[in-house]
Amino acid sequence: MIFSPLVGWWGNRLGSIRLPLLCSLALFSIASGIYACLELFPTHQKYWMLYSRFLIGVSSSSVAVCRSYLSAATKVKERTGAVSMVSLAQTLGFIVGPVLQGAVTMFGEDGLPLMKNKLHLNMYTATGWINVLMGILNFCLFLPFVFKEKRIAAREAMMLQGMQSEKETWKSMKPDYLSAWTLICAFFILVFNFVFLETLATPLTMDMFAWTKGEALYYMAWIMAVGAILASAMFLMIDPLCKRIPERQVLIWGGFFLMVLGRAVYIPMSDRPPKLALPENETLAAMRMEDTSPYVYGSNFTDVRSNLTRVDFDYGGPITTLEPFAVDDAKDLLGCPPTQEWCKTTRGMTITQFLIGYAFTAIGYPIGVTLITTIFSKVLGPRPQGTWMGIMTGSGCLSRALGPVFLSTIYTKYGLYWTFGSTAVMMAATMLWLWQMRFVFGVSTSINTLSRAYISTATKLSERTGAISMSSLAQTFGLAIGPIIQAALSMIGKDGTMWYGLRINMYTMAGWICSIGGVVYIILLNPSCFVHRTIAAQEAMKTSGCSKATDTYEPLKMFSIWTVMIGYSVLMFFYVSVQTALSPISLDQFGWSHEESLYYLGILITGGTLCSCASSGNDTGGKQHDSYVGIVQ
User: Fold this and answer.
1) CA distance 74 to 191
2) Does position 179 have pLDDT exceeding 70, yes or no?
3) Is the per-residue pLDDT at 625 higher than 60?
4) 62-72 and 18-36 are packed helices; what angle lies between their axes, rounded to 10 degrees?
5) Is Membrane given among the entry's keywords (predicted)?
């Protein structure tokens, strides 16, 4: 986390990734050698091990310059496939690593002597020596006569921009800093949720399914292996998938949406609470039974060999008494510990839930982490990306550091509902933000419903037609003024200007105007300006002689209401279809540019809207009371 931005900045300053990578690989080999030779140190072996892990962390910061080089050495259209292949290689490392660890267990704890019984090759030190050999091999692969650096992205941008040098090219292409920081935050949230599940999986299965530590490690190893294979398949599918569907859509729906489902599925759905691990002393003191053998609750798997105690939450059967010496033998109780208060009140999780949620995560995470990196590199453009990639890598490392803290505070104190509810909301909020907030904008426009409902509430029956026509006139005025403003904004152009990292151009300026309009609207709805009225209810009470507004309600004529609603839907369908088709038709048929299309269509729509204003303003004054007007009212 600390060194990733620094190493990325170093690579930018040098203009080459070779020296940072060679130094990090050398440091990786030295640190792995220290770990493998811990028994040579007569004292402070734990501190030497911590020091070796610190150096491993520093050497791992080379991931930032690797990602930076990947962006520099590929064309834009090649980048998604290249990033997915590198992510696949990393995932294969997670698969092969445990396999190698399992293979070296044949050396046992004693192993083979390497240096007069002072240094041994055993099941613990073998992994360190494997890392030393791999570090040396990688070091050789990055030497000048093997590895040749290429800067394809900068040359591609030079050709497209018609520039003479790389520096001129990337200086002329200003990155969208808001999008860059959004992707960094999204990367943090994505990695945090994945690492959190990775950290929580073993204690969660032990709490929910009353597995022993051995069972949890064994079954989770198989589950994670299958998940890694599934993730590897997804890495291979990302590139062809993005050739058919836009990357942003694949990221939102294939990555974040599946991660949201993975968190939501973990909300407890079992019919009974989890197995409760009673406090050891109280359990053993209370157990009285002729058979003195420890009671073992059978788990979901039949072959259980354990001297640990499992107890149902609602266990009311025979109880056994153990000898005092047996208390020391029973180290742990299996199930959800009662020190976690939520274990007594929360419903349990089923094994099916756990597997489905893990499958969603195994599919969504590789899609998300690959496409965030890909889109991030495209947002930054052809400029050197070492520092920025270092910041993104650091955000992922920070999420790994915060995962255990979140586990100890939220899961142990508040339980499953808060844990997976909060992470699901976290992922959903990030997904909506990546969706450019169009969803939130759509929700905000539902205020039209409240406005129309209030017009019916705050007007007499004789006034309602005129009030509705004035409201429609105001809305139509907005449709008239909006295109005029949009046409005027087209003079700003696509590039516009940068203001504190934000791009102000012909597209974004409309959003700022809407923000100002929204603030003004909120001020006008302040209680000192807007007073709520219920005139229609008072009129109905006076006419019918009722004392309560609810007594004046009459059965609704549902057939008439649905007829009007369907007619309104068909009308709006054709209106919106024409409005949507105007822009692409003008671009295709008349060869207009985007600026010309916005300008001329703004004038055209304004003319049509003014005609609509004239008809909306033709108030009937409430004098027409035929059946259709009655239905509308």
Assistant:
1) 25
2) yes
3) no
4) 150
5) yes
Question: Among all chains, which residue has been given the structure tokens 């974004």?
Answer: 508
Quick one: 180 and 161 in the same domain? Answer: no
Of 136, 166, 196, the one marking the end of a domain is 166
Q: Is the pLDDT of residue 614 over 70?
A: no
d(CA 510, CA 520): 16
**CB–CB of 99/51 below 8 Å?**
no
Q: What is the pLDDT of residue 449?
A: 73
- DSSP H helices in 104-147: 125-141
In Å, how far are 7, 17, 62, 74, 143 from 13, measured between CA atoms?
A: 10, 10, 15, 21, 20
Domain shared by 160 and 178, yes or no: no
CA distance 112 to 102: 17
* Tens digits of residue pLDDT in 425-453: 888 888 888 876 555 555 556 667 777 77
Which pLDDT value is given to residue 616?
A: 52
Per-residue confidence (pLDDT) for residue 440, from 0 to 100: 52
From CA 270, how far away is CA 618, in angstroms rounded?
62
Dist. CA 186–CA 180, nearest whole Å: 10
Q: What's the number of domains the chain is made of? A: 3
Sequence-ordered strand ranges (E) for 333-384: 333-334
Q: Are residues 504 and 444 in the same domain?
A: no
Is residue 74 situated within a structural domain?
Answer: yes
Confidence of residue 170 (pLDDT cuts 50, 70, 90): low
Spacing of C-alpha 190 from chain mean position: 5
Q: Which of 59, 42, 53 lies closest to 4, judged by CA?
A: 59
**What residues contact residue 52 under an 8 Å CB cut-off, 6+ apart?**
31, 32, 34, 35, 38
* CB contact at 8 A, 478 and 608: no
CATH assignment of the domain containing 1: 1.20.1250.20
pLDDT of residue 585: 80
Instruction: Provide the 3-class DSSP secondary structure of residue 130.
Output: helix
Q: Which residue has the tokens 């965030």?
A: 372
Does a structural domain hold residue 465?
Answer: no
CA distances from residue 539 to 462, 533, 564 in whole angstroms, order as listed: 11, 12, 25
Residue type for 501, please? G
**Which residues lie below 8 Å from residue 489, measured CB to CB, with a gap of 6+?**
506, 509, 510, 598
* Domain endpoint, select from 166, 196, 217: 166
> Phi and psi at residue 298, in whole multiples of 5°?
-70, 130
Q: Output phi, psi for 494, to 5 deg.
A: -70, -40
Residues 19 and 59 in one domain: yes
Least confident range of 108-112, 167-171, 293-297, 327-331? 293-297
Structure tokens at 347: 């419903």
Could you read off the pLDDT of 491-542 as tens digits, one per residue?
A: 877 777 777 667 788 777 888 888 888 888 788 877 777 777 778 777 777 7
In contact, 194 and 402? CB cutoff 8 Å:
no
Q: What are phi and psi of 448, to 5 degrees?
A: -55, -35
Domain shared by 77 and 129, yes or no: yes
Strand partners, 91: none
Q: Which domain holds residue 596?
A: 473-526+557-614
pLDDT tens figures, 494-503: 777 777 667 7
State the Cα–Cα distance between residues 147 and 358, nearest whole angstrom: 39
Indicate whether 503 and 561 sit together in one domain.
Answer: yes
Eight-class DSSP state of 336: B
